[in-house]
Amino acid sequence: MNITKYVSILLIAMTSMLSSCQLVEGIFKAGMGFGIFIVVAIIALIIFIIMRIGRGKKDA
Prior knowledge:
Layout: H1 3-59
């Protein structure tokens, strides 16, 4: 096998690794944003429930 075949295989492997790393990076960035959104939504829901329970006790 000659050297050009090795070089071409190496270049193809390197480009596929680079693109997959960028893909994984994008997925983690999107996951982090979605995770932050979920945490904020859960905190808002807890505050809403606590306020609702507190308001119910004042009316009784």
